[in-house]
Amino acid sequence: MTEIASNSKSAGSKQAVALSRYAPRGSRVAIWGSCPELYVQTGTIMATRYGQMGPIPAGHFREYYEGILMRDLERSRPAVFVDAVHSGAFNFNNRATQGHETFPALAAFVRRNYQLKEEIGGVRIFVANGNTNFAPAETVAKSMESSEEPTGWTIRFNAGSGAEIYRVSGWSGAEPEFTWTEGTSAKLKLPIPDHDAALMLRMKLGGLIHPRELPVQNVAVYANGQKIADWQVSEPADFAAPIPLELTRNVEDLNIELRIPDAASPQSLGMSYDGRLLGVRCYFVELRRR
């Protein structure tokens, strides 16, 4: 993960606190670089369809994807633009060759519409001209550290939700309401909302079932290599599993694996011509402090 994740042990990292001064929860933010955890930590919304943005390699599709990115930005007009390219960051770590200034159309857009307000830990925060929605740093930090609301987040798995950035392997393409697991193992890499508290994992799942041959899908749930639950999934329902504190206290990410030994294809069950090896469909994943 990025420097923000490695240097912070709570949802109130110094970069998140700074960003929250200018972008209240629910506002749209564009982040250039590989730093999606800032969206989670601040409760802000992606201003483009891409969970991470960076230089697009030269080739036939460069102009196409750059056009999509600029249209998304022009349409959403985010309150804040963040350039998270710096020497300690993951993947995008060279400001000279990967900073937003290397993309001429984007650089012009930022110069025209934003002002640099502060740089913290190498992360630059640009605020839209005319945006007066500021809060004192002390107020933001206090609210993030001592909020009475449970610390955590929810990731939707419907098409367009941006959940792809958390999927590691074993997932099919997103559909209008959910995403199917594909194969007998599905893995996620999730940001940890609170390193100093035991967490609760909650997922809404529905199984690929057939009344006679396959009445339920048996799902074994692992967190950072340790088994935490056995679920029997049929009709869509909420499932929960506690995650011991020792599994998250000294690590950067939470690796979740769903092992689904009875995954089958709808074709093999005589349900359709779909040959994919499906197990369960996921509607959302939630991780919160217990």
State the gist of this model:
With 290 residues, the chain is an alpha+beta fold. Helices cover 20% and strands 33% of the residues.
SSE map:
Elements: H1 3-7, H2 14-22, E1 28-32, H3 37-42, E2 45-46, H4 62-76, E3 80-83, H5 95-98, H6 104-113, E4 114-120, E5 123-128, H7 137-146, E6 152-156, E7 167-169, E8 171-174, E9 179-182, E10 185-191, E11 199-207, E12 217-223, E13 226-233, E14 237-243, E15 253-259, E16 278-289
Parallel strand pairs: 1-2, 1-3
Antiparallel strand pairs: 3-5, 4-5, 6-16, 7-10, 8-9, 9-16, 10-15, 11-14, 11-16, 12-13, 12-15
Question: Could you characterize what this model shows?
Answer:
The protein is an alpha+beta fold. 20% of the residues lie in helices and 33% in strands. It contains seven helices and 16 strands. Strands 6, 8, 9, 11, 14 and 16 form a six-stranded antiparallel beta sheet that branches. Helix 2 (14-22) packs across helix 7 (137-146).
Distance between the termini: 25 Å
How much of the sequence lies in strands comes to 25-35%
Helical fraction: 10-25%
Report the average pLDDT across residues: 84
Count of discrete domains: 2
Radius of gyration: 21 Å
Instruction: Work out the helix count.
Output: 7
Number of strands: 16
- Structural class estimated from helices and strands: alpha+beta
H/E topology pattern: HHEHEHEHHEEHEEEEEEEEEEE
Low-confidence stretches: 1-12, 134-150
Shape: globular
Largest sheet: 6 strands, antiparallel
